[in-house]
Design brief:
This protein has about 400 residues and is mainly α. It is built from 13 helices and no strands.
Length: about 400
């Protein structure tokens, strides 16, 4: 049951929650994907820039709405931390910022002067510090309140450590245009935080698999969240290949190797960077398989809930559906990276097709969101018992 028409625009804006940043991170991810898709055509870069600029404005609009919400009701910020659903999705704000940084590198490098690379270098370290502190204190806070007891679906527990993990993806992107003495610590920092996020995700994956084995699939309204499980595997694959690729140019030929054999000759047949690229590539293929597995499980689970496949029908539109966009974008970019390192035209053509499908999904979810808001199915006070939107927002 909805309220009457006395609900004001401000009332509706105050219903925007942390999970709405998932729209921005998904949109930013599409812009990054278009800049990296292997088969470019005239005008694609312009389309990507338009989406990127739109996402900047969209991110600021969501932030303005959050400020209005917290200023209108001072207790709202504290309540968002304590809410069993909303608290887990606060990191989507940092994830959206990560896509903005990646887009700045992808679209700004050719259009801006050297100042951009200096700015991105500073932004990287600031982002790495903030995301690391956020992962530490946010996870501690969730442990302190035993928040997992309020969030029965364990895959959401991946999110607090996710922004720190994306430091590796950012490092792999910006290192190419940094001076060698600056790029090396960026790569080391990226590997460090990528490892942290990946190991943390492995712990959550164990609980997630146990949950599915014991309790079965989640209710249809929560199933789009299953795509979150695609993210850590995918971003680890693309980050490791990207950082190793830059390491070939940046690492000294005897880097680390000279520690074990400092007296050996400087001329070597295989350099440290070459070794890193080979190891990273095979490990990326290894984890990509798990990303593909979770992608298939999530897709089949969502389709099984539709009437076409004998289900009760897809749940009403909510912010939850945006969970299907960003992780899949990471999967496609990871596949692109693997196709490039294996020098496989077939894989690259497959990724171009996947890019088109991903853009269609993004447009579809975006259009459905606009219609739902216009029809008062979203951002409208309703019976709290429904709770569908609150699962992500």
């Amino acid at each position: 049951m909805v309220l009457d028409d006395r609900v004001t625009l401000k009332d509706r804006l105050c219903l925007i929650k942390w999970g709405w940043y998932s729209m921005s991170m998904a949109t930013g991810g599409i812009a990054v994907l278009l800049s990296r898709t292997p088969h470019q055509f005239t005008g694609l870069e312009i389309i990507g820039k338009i989406i990127y600029i739109f996402n900047l404005a969209f991110f600021l609009a969501i932030t303005a709405c959050m400020v209005i919400r917290f200023m209108s009701r001072p207790t709202a910020l504290k309540e968002s931390f304590r809410d069993g659903n909303e608290s887990y999705y606060m990191p989507t704000c940092l994830l959206a910022i990560a896509t903005i940084i990646l887009g700045a590198e992808g679209y700004g490098t050719s259009a801006c002067g050297p100042w951009l690379q200096v700015a991105l270098r500073i932004v990287f370290w600031v982002y790495a510090a903030i995301s690391t502190l956020s992962a530490i204190f946010h996870n501690w806070y969730l442990y302190h309140l035993a928040m997992a007891s309020q969030q029965p679906f364990p895959i959401a527990q991946l999110l607090p450590s996710f922004p720190a993990m994306l430091s590796g993806t950012i490092a792999s992107s910006i290192a190419a245009n940094q001076p060698r003495d600056q790029a090396l610590p960026i790569l080391i920092g990226g590997v460090t935080l990528q490892g942290f996020g990946f190991i943390m995700s492995l712990l959550i994956y164990a609980e997630y698999q146990y949950f599915l084995a014991k309790h079965g699939l989640p209710e249809p309204a929560k199933r789009p969240q299953m795509f979150i499980a695609v993210g850590p595997w995918s971003f680890t694959a693309l980050a490791l290949i990207g950082m190793a690729k830059e390491g070939v140019k940046i690492f000294p030929s005897r880097y680390i190797i000279s520690y074990a054999d400092p007296m050996s000759a400087g001329n070597v047949t295989v350099s440290t960077g070459d070794i890193a690229l080979v190891i990273a590539s095979f490990f990326a293929i290894f984890v990509w398989t798990m990303a593909f597995f979770h992608l298939c499980i999530a897709a089949i689970s969502v389709l099984a809930s539709t009437k076409i496949f004998g289900g009760a029908g897809a749940p009403p539109m909510s912010v939850v559906y945006w969970g299907m966009v960003f992780p899949n974008t990471g999967f496609i970019i990871a596949t692109i990276s693997i196709g490039q390192v294996l020098q496989s035209p077939a894989i690259l053509w497959v990724t171009s097709v996947l890019t088109v499908l991903q853009v269609i999904m993004w447009l579809g979810v975006g259009s459905a969101t606009i219609l739902a808001v216009a029809r008062r199915q979203m951002l409208w006070p309703e019976d709290d018992k429904r709770g569908i939107e609150d699962e992500l927002s």
